[in-house]
Design goal:
Structural class: alpha/beta
Largest sheet: 6 strands, mixed
Number of helices: 6
Strand order of the largest sheet: 4-3-5-6-7-9
Order of helices and strands: EEHEHEHEHEHEHEE
Strand content: 15-25%
Shape: globular
């Protein structure tokens, strides 16, 4: 029975017929470009990430790091904090406050999913005078409000509608013994104040 996987891959490609997902490495590169632009292409930035062992977090961070290393020599990633994986570990809020105290010149944060974005925005309310730039990933109502009021530069949004649609198509093709690509790229879109309300971007929002 062919298996079609949506959103996140698995360790062995032999187990699945097709994976329909975001190119998370490219999305991480996109986030880096926009955060570097927001901080004027110089200074210290940090990352607040969901689970360290997740494929999506690993690829988004890898793309983010490579883009900065290769194309933004005056920007330095000083810290990568991860969502705790077990009880007793510091919360993301505690880790973030420690990072903010340790790096008083920090200029920007990349948050690797919506949950991390919401956590960062809540913490940064206590550091408004530092004007720290935030680039997030995926767009819920809290981040939408933050972009509108200028406390978040923008987000890289996955394409949930397109991902679901392409997954169904892949399933039908598999059932009909038709060929499918092993990886189907659902795409992503940068969303900020300038394009959030465009009709063509409505399906990236939720």
């Amino acid at each position: 029975i062919p298996v079609i996987v949506l959103d996140s891959g698995v360790a062995s490609s032999d187990l699945v017929y097709s994976v329909c997902a975001t190119d998370n490495y490219a999305a991480g590169e996109e986030a880096a470009r926009h955060l570097c632009e927001a901080v004027g292409n110089q200074g210290e930035v940090a990352v607040l990430s969901h689970l360290q062992m997740g494929e999506t977090s690993q690829e988004r961070i890898r793309g983010f790091e490579d883009e900065i290393k290769n194309n933004h020599p005056e920007v330095t990633i000083v810290e990568i904090d991860y969502e705790p994986s077990r009880q007793g570990e510091p919360t993301v809020q505690e880790q973030m406050r420690e990072t903010l105290e340790q790096y008083p010149e920090l200029k920007g944060y990349f948050c690797t999913n919506e949950v991390m974005g919401k956590a960062a925005l809540a913490v940064l309310k206590d550091y408004e005078e530092r004007n720290i730039q935030v680039v997030g990933f995926d767009l819920g109502s809290i981040q939408e409000d933050a972009i509108r009021n200028g406390t978040e530069a923008g987000v890289v949004c996955q394409n949930p509608y397109g991902m679901g649609y392409a997954t169904v198509v892949a399933g039908v093709r598999a059932a009909l013994d038709m060929e499918n690509d092993a990886f189907i790229d659902a795409g992503f879109q940068w969303i900020d104040q300038s394009n959030m309300d465009l009709e063509e971007n409505s399906r990236y929002l939720y």
